[in-house]
Amino acid sequence: MIFPSDLPMTTITVFAALAALSVLTLTVTIFKTIQFRRLGVGGHKRGEEILDDWLNGRPDEAQRKATAGKTVLARVLGAVMSGLRARPSEPGYGEELARQVALAELARMGARMRLLEAVVQMAPMLGLLGTVIGMIDAFGNLALSQEAADPRLLASGIWTALTTTAAGLAIALVAYFIASWLEGRIEDERQTIELVISSAIHGRIAQPARA
Known about the structure:
It contains seven helices and no strands.
């Protein structure tokens, strides 16, 4: 995209700020993707194996897998099983240990998410600011011109001004979808954590037989 060479400094500043927001969105997306992989977010299969061993009377094997596991569910299940084995008569103790670990894991998963929320809110406002400033500049130059107005120059100025709003909306939409995807993964992990904690303490509900 080619812009006129005589853009006002304020419009250039708005474009620079929008470019910075797009870089921030990309950086946070890469960071969260790598972080989720390292934390083991979504590793439910391993958690199911640990829970099956625990509920089927193989606590040592379950504890071993939980210790060796590198997923969120493995660490949460390791905490609840440690608490239940340390104090068999106090299930609340194991539940509390698991919830503490779960809160720490969820806090790490939620880190940097506010940056994406900030981009979603700031990008359209910056784009609109750039458009308003560009329109003011275009009509101000037209009013101060001593010659006959050239509609092409006016249209060029308005087009350039409107591109900031379009860019801001595009960046905000991308950031919104990325944030929604990441928040969906966090919410899915939170619900699964609650389910495995309850299952480890109270057992699973028997699944109805299929016809």
